[in-house]
Amino acid sequence: MTLNVDIRARVGSFTLEAAITAAEGEVLAVLGPNGSGKSTLLGAIAGHLDHAGRHSEVTGRIALGDRELDRSVPPERRRIGLLGQHTTLFPHLSALDNVAFGPRAQRMPRAEADDIARRHLADVGLSDLAERRPAQLSGGQRQRVALARALAAAPDALLLDEPFAALDVQTSAQARRLVSELRDKVSVPMVLVTHDPMDAVMLASRTVVLHEGRVVQQGPTGEVLGHPNSPFVAAIAGVDLVSGVGDRHGLLQTDHGTAGAIRWSGRGDELRPGDAGTAVFSPGAVRIHQAAHRDITMIDTPPNTWTGTVAHLESIPGGVRLFTTEHPSIAVDCSSMTAVEAGVRPDAVLSFSILAQDVSVRRSR
């Protein structure tokens, strides 16, 4: 069955307007900064906002298959599982009893509920820890028990609210693999709220980006993260986005005033002269060279090539991110070794280039 949502949700002075769809067996990623409305969206779908008092209200339509989930349907009757970054396991119950809680609450015989719980614990690789209580488990193990518990209740949809945020790097990688495996085994729509584009890349076929309570872009994950439609979404995706117009050679030309122009060639749309368009590329795909002895304002340079004066440096894992005075909106990443070899330092004049195959060019629509 498909989850269809088209709502306007108010929580205090904040208002969310969003329309999303998650198909059976699909993971839909929802990206956005803190305060963009991600958790509000999940709360509305789960039914928590409808019963949160006079300071919240949900209008519009939420449907799961042929079931309408209006405010008359309380959370416990929606058959929607919710897994957050902080597990809410019952501390006095074993892992087995925590997982069996949902089936037992649905008045299933204890033996049958326990069998279901054991099967789901096996699915998450915790069969041998069934008798341990939450305090005896690691953070990653508790998260896996929580996921097993959500699935044991046989939900018609699953909501994942930053499920990897509280885990360390190694454990979060294991958790992602687990969700990926379960996605292929459990044919229910899943909505994954995250701040990390890597979650969307690894798990989601489609992605929605929220900003200040509005959907600013949605579509196939490769399209949304591979070619954002705005500087905001580009920042979320961690890529550079430049805008310009097509020149007589079919290249995208971006005008930087006294800094001259950069002409961009890449894969994607063909541009006609005067067409508005954008180019997107990864900061790490840019190559850095010691500058040639020439005027840095010249525009008759090859495509995807420019020169600039280092204005600002930032430390990133394993290297450096730099920005130039002439092109301050373009971030360039390089390894520490490359930075040393190229002479990266404040006020250094450097040349930059990027292969056409690493640039995505789109006509503005």
UniProtKB/TrEMBL annotation:
Kindly state which keywords UniProt assigns to this record, in alphabetical order: ATP-binding, Nucleotide-binding, Transport
Molecular function as annotated in GO: ATP binding
Q: Where's the ABC transporter domain?
A: 2-237
Q: Does the keyword 4Fe-4S apply?
A: no
Signal sequence segment: none
Q: Which SUPFAM superfamilies match?
A: P-loop containing nucleoside triphosphate hydrolases
Q: Which PANTHER family match?
A: SPERMIDINE/PUTRESCINE IMPORT ATP-BINDING PROTEIN POTA, SPERMIDINE_PUTRESCINE IMPORT ATP-BINDING PROTEIN POTA
Q: What is the protein's name according to its record?
A: Molybdate transport system ATP-binding protein
